[in-house]
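Record passed on underneath.
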Amino acid sequence: MAQPKRSPGRPKTQPAAATAPAPAAPKKRSIKRKENLSTTVEYEIPSRAGVVYMLPQKGITIYDSEKNTVREIRYCPNEPSIWVDEQSENALKESVAFREGKLFVPVEKPNLKEFLDHHPMNMQNGGNLFKEVDKKRDAERQLEREFKLTEAIAMVRDKDIQELLPVALYFKVNINQPTAEIRYNLLNIAKTKTQEFIEAFDSPQVTTRATIQQAADYQIINMKNDGVYWFDSNSLIVSVPVGQDSTDVMVRFCLTEKGAPVLGDIEQRLDRLN
């Protein structure tokens, strides 16, 4: 007798393939560096130096603040002092020459560096001929300027338009134009007046000036040459001295203890308009 066919059972499950471990992230290694600090000081004549320029030494006098008197200086390599009245009878003067507008002073010549640092033609002393080149200091200053500029540009891009409007009014930007044009005008100001632009956001004078200008635009106050008045009652708020700007006077007044209630009243009236 034939055996009945069995229905196929559940297929055998295949063992899951082992998951390969994720590759390890490459280990970050610090890059070793050795900062080269030059011991040679560089001086330069920025313009019209010529092939060789001999720095004047004869009769060079400067004011010595320590001794409160005018004294003569000169460079003598065999003397420890640059002051003529402290040098010996055997002092030998040596010429100081810029070549192609450059002069490099090694650390072994501290008296030459001192002579150049005190020379009246040095720009740091008010002269107009030569200056010390400090690349590290110049780079730090330039970095600071660039970072400030980046910060100012980011403010124009990221701040809400309501945060920008008081600053726009302070810089006399038309706030009734499209938002993009306001930001563009402020961007140009941020590039040319970077520090003033950044500081404007935290200045009570800026926000107060914006409030005063808005109050004048919406006929809450009336700005006249002789004073600032309430528009509805024509009563005087503050007098304006002859020759002074009424807005400036009103801003200063509102930032005083006496003017604070007036500023609060103006702000309430502006809020009711909104």
Q: What stands out?
A: The chain has a mean pLDDT of 90. The domain at 206-273 is CATH 3.30.250 (Rec A Protein; domain 2). The helical segments are 110-118, 135-158, 161-170, 179-192, 194-200, 204-217, 246-254, 260-273.
